[in-house]
Amino acid sequence: MAMVCLSDFEAYAKKYLPKIAWDYFAAGADDCTTRDENILAYRRIRFRPRMLRDVSMMDIRTKILGSEISFPVGIAPTGFHQLAWPDGEKSTARAARAMNTCYIASTYSTCTLEEICAAAPGGLRWFQLYIHRNRAASQQLVQRAEALGFQGLVLTADLPYTGKRRDDVRNGFRLPPHMKVKNLEQAFEVCKMSPAFHSLRWHYGLPPNSLDPSVTWNDIYWLRSLTRLPIIIKGILTAEDAELAVRHGVQGIIVSNHGGRQLDEGPATIDALVEVVEAVRGRVEVYVDGGIRKGSDVLKALALGAKCVFIGRPALWGLAYKGEEGLQDVLRILQDEFHLSMALAGKYFVCNGGYRCFCMQAL
Amino acid sequence: MAMVCLSDFEAYAKKYLPKIAWDYFAAGADDCTTRDENILAYRRIRFRPRMLRDVSMMDIRTKILGSEISFPVGIAPTGFHQLAWPDGEKSTARAARAMNTCYIASTYSTCTLEEICAAAPGGLRWFQLYIHRNRAASQQLVQRAEALGFQGLVLTADLPYTGKRRDDVRNGFRLPPHMKVKNLEQAFEVCKMSPAFHSLRWHYGLPPNSLDPSVTWNDIYWLRSLTRLPIIIKGILTAEDAELAVRHGVQGIIVSNHGGRQLDEGPATIDALVEVVEAVRGRVEVYVDGGIRKGSDVLKALALGAKCVFIGRPALWGLAYKGEEGLQDVLRILQDEFHLSMALAGKYFVCNGGYRCFCMQAL
Amino acid sequence: MAMVCLSDFEAYAKKYLPKIAWDYFAAGADDCTTRDENILAYRRIRFRPRMLRDVSMMDIRTKILGSEISFPVGIAPTGFHQLAWPDGEKSTARAARAMNTCYIASTYSTCTLEEICAAAPGGLRWFQLYIHRNRAASQQLVQRAEALGFQGLVLTADLPYTGKRRDDVRNGFRLPPHMKVKNLEQAFEVCKMSPAFHSLRWHYGLPPNSLDPSVTWNDIYWLRSLTRLPIIIKGILTAEDAELAVRHGVQGIIVSNHGGRQLDEGPATIDALVEVVEAVRGRVEVYVDGGIRKGSDVLKALALGAKCVFIGRPALWGLAYKGEEGLQDVLRILQDEFHLSMALAGKYFVCNGGYRCFCMQAL
Amino acid sequence: MAMVCLSDFEAYAKKYLPKIAWDYFAAGADDCTTRDENILAYRRIRFRPRMLRDVSMMDIRTKILGSEISFPVGIAPTGFHQLAWPDGEKSTARAARAMNTCYIASTYSTCTLEEICAAAPGGLRWFQLYIHRNRAASQQLVQRAEALGFQGLVLTADLPYTGKRRDDVRNGFRLPPHMKVKNLEQAFEVCKMSPAFHSLRWHYGLPPNSLDPSVTWNDIYWLRSLTRLPIIIKGILTAEDAELAVRHGVQGIIVSNHGGRQLDEGPATIDALVEVVEAVRGRVEVYVDGGIRKGSDVLKALALGAKCVFIGRPALWGLAYKGEEGLQDVLRILQDEFHLSMALAGKYFVCNGGYRCFCMQAL
């Protein structure tokens, strides 16, 4: 089987992963409308390609929060990499380092932060955080991550409760016994259930209701008090919230709808990116995840103002294919396709590290 | 079979109900365009979700015409519940009371109003009325309903004649011998057929042409003279008719196209809601039915100005699954999904019992 | 098999007609885009139904060019009715008279005009004409029709050459030996082929190139000189041509694209109707054919300004089902559905014979 | 099998060509979105047909850069015709001459320019050029072409690198041993690979990286210095580049996206044509290729301002069917369909050789 484009990895993963694991990675909330819209929205964007520019030399490196990466694609935080490959997040960390890009490790990793760092010393990594009712647990995680050399703190803002992913409920999804949410072991007592959700008792490896649904913008200040790491907020979809994020002092925004796994029927991320970029007016860096399937999708996101994109499910497909090596294949294909689409669209490197946008129109 | 979302109940009902009963419940007029549009129109509405709001406490109770219900979803009037479950409307009444919501009993019930009330004393119920050529029969029904403690009178305005539901004609639909339109037994003599409809002689348990196609807005005054119950008019789809309804003194409007069973190719109800709400300007309460399949649909309807929604076919699927218990399952799922989507959209309870709308845009 | 709606007749005809005949009737030009658009365009038009109007009495009769018909649906000119039913156009004429409506007999009939008139004396009929290179043949046809009591002359304007209907070319369509274009027997010598169309040598029962592609608006004056019958021009699709038609003194316009059998990818007729009606400003009567499949389509056409509609393929399906009786079934269903949709849309009869339009919006 | 329209030839070629050859001809870049959009965009354009014009005489000849052709359809440059038919480009040249139209011979021909010219002396031909890193090779080609009587030089501007055509990668496409890119034999040494594209090592019969990605608009001046032939630039998709082309002194522009084989998700060519024609304001001739499948597509392109269209894949299907004879069939069908659609749209020849456009609207 030739691995030519990302959908080849998707087909492989669908075929070889246990159904319960595939379903978990593939899941979207409710009717999966937003999950699918993330992809379809890219298809509705058209290039206006320019010809006869010298595209013989193109430098596709960029910097995110001051750190150079080899091309503007990082690894988005996703949970439970051991479901895809035995070495789990250790393989992810190694592949990201090998490709010289950024890996955002999830709170819901099946390896500890320490294991992740030991697997790929010196790699550029950010740590993704949920705020739990047990604030001490969150604080401890932040400080562990900072001590281990993580260079950014990504606060996920769109999960006060877990979205309803029907297949996971049908499958009775839970981690196999030999896997654990290792970073949070023993951190939680079982919380009292909210009466509202008695029929929707899904949870992913942690006690139900361990997450704190009362988090507000002021908790950014609390996080700021815990760490000197830059704070990136993930899950912003509107200009209004982007403005609030800037005002509360974050260093970066990831436009994200959690891969369509939380609120169904919100905007596709590439569509939301436009209004967020416009609202932010360059005050902080803006990234985007969701729906990236081709190198030209990366170019579109950059042309619309993203500094970098992050991939979620495609990284897992790469892991499922061949672990560290498979993920490198995925990244390399995206890199080549990005490079090629940039050349064919007539774009070129500009000294300050930005990309000039000649060439977009929405349908 | 896990019952995770409303379409699971639909699949169950389709599989286990007799075809003639399934077809009757599922039927839409002509090409079923409007029946299907009711659902598709919800899919075209997108949330603009807001993040980092405290959604730990959400009170989803509301009041309709002064009566509190546990969440803004009631049971729309539909006929012949015994086709779905042996106990018929008695089960419906019990489930609605158990979930503390409102049940609109149909004239075309297979239980008498007295049986319905006896099955669930104290439940909040409205009575749905057609105006018959035999006005004495209609008057008697209204006064029976008022005497039995029904708290609202719902006048269906969109059925001067019955819509053409092809499958019912093909099936030669009629009630099984042991079921009757009990509330109207012996009330009607056979009326003289209108010459126009000789090839369309469908009717549903009553003599053809028992309904009065000459009803006009002035008949609201006649109804008003019969009862002190609030009058809710059901079947309004335009701003013009909404204005007329308010001027004729109704207390509530249900935006409805009869589940797409009457005139095909009119507007989807969620689309019509917008202009009705705008025309009414808060003078009376506005509700909507048709196409509600997920909790987030309820949130959309409320965000667009509905005070409450009513479900028709999903209630029948619940009955077909497990009678009273099945209908409670359906309501509970909608309630949980509504609650969850509200949290994920960043909405919260406001003291005056309303919901604030941050977050909608039509595609 | 219950015949409930027009598509039942279509399914019957498709199943029981010889493939070559079905293909001929079903054919559209090229990719059949316009043929299908005629239908789809009706689906994009929505009613704005009004409630609580007295719809107990509705008079659906109308007049076309002064002659009363029982409801605003006539029979469009189509060729070769013997392909559908042995008695051919004689059955068509009888059914139209029985339903008290207008039948436009085609030049391409398989019965003579005399046979048609003898089959249903006293019926309201118009005669459809092509102008042939052999002008004497056309003149003779016009004068025969007038003498036989036809009450209108329909000039087809959209067939300077025959459209390319792929299936007819593949099938090598030609009339069976026992059928003839009887009205034109012996009228034509074989004309010299135009060099341009050597690979497209299809023709339908007449010598190739018998039609005159040099016809212009001035030929209306020639026709006028031949007859006192009102002239109706068929095939107009633009405001510009509608204006020219009025200026050249026609009495009526049929907005038509020949059922999508001539130029593919022109407008759907119901869409073109709007601009034609606006351009004509009531100076002559405007009719429409193409895509009528339900009674509510008739209502839409009338609401958008047509005085009457004409059906083509559905009439042939009726013939194929049961000859005269089958065509009456088709007409009766359309009549009932039209009546019903008018009632459900809240429309009513107005004394001057017109229909009031409350209720349309294009998507 | 009746060959009635171009898709019949497509079906034939798909059935009888070796898969690797079919895939190569059919290939589009990435998801093939643009390849398919080229066709779909024509479907979104509607005629506004006019009636009763004298269409008995229509002269469909036109001139491109001063040379008369029998109708406004030429043969676009495509590679490797021997994959479709043993005689390869020799058959193409003969068919084009027989139909009195223009054939643009590709650099990637499997016959030499000399063989092509010897096969059909006196035919109207242009030569298509890529600019290679080995400029001497390009110069030599240009001068050979001029000496052989080619009458135009077509510079392809949209291929600084080859697009990613997944099926070719999967198939490991390469020419069979007995076929060669004959015009360039021995012209190239193997170039050093660009490090960026290490995983995308596809190439088509030439050493990788033989093309020069540093070409800019100034190289038009270099070409001008080599030859007195008119220069036509192929691959322009924006008004901005059209303006640059005119300013750099080209004689013609072919609006093209390389059949959707280079950058995916740029504009359909018929859509891009509109802005290019508007920008050019008649200063040079504008042509278009991509997506032509019916004679009415040609009419649309002309009505939107193209002087002539060129067909790529349909010509190959014709070759695959019956070589020279099959390609003539394809051209003759297009010619007849073009002629017919022009007649049915009410268009006519105007003395100055142009076509008047009464009749277009975009959806």
TrEMBL record, chains A, B, C, D:
Please list the residues that bind FMN.
77-79, 106, 128, 130, 156, 234, 256, 258, 289-293, 312-313
Q: Which Pfam families match?
A: FMN_dh
Q: Which GO biological-process labels does this protein carry? A: fatty acid alpha-oxidation
Name the top EC class: oxidoreductase
- Binding of glyoxylate occurs at Y24, R165, R261
Catalysed reactions, semicolon-separated: 2-hydroxyoctanoate + O2 = 2-oxooctanoate + H2O2; a (2S)-2-hydroxycarboxylate + O2 = a 2-oxocarboxylate + H2O2
Q: Which residues form the FMN hydroxy acid dehydrogenase domain?
A: 1-363
Query: What is the similarity comment for this entry?
Result: Belongs to the FMN-dependent alpha-hydroxy acid dehydrogenase family.
Q: What is this protein called?
A: (S)-2-hydroxy-acid oxidase
**Native source species:** Donacobius atricapilla
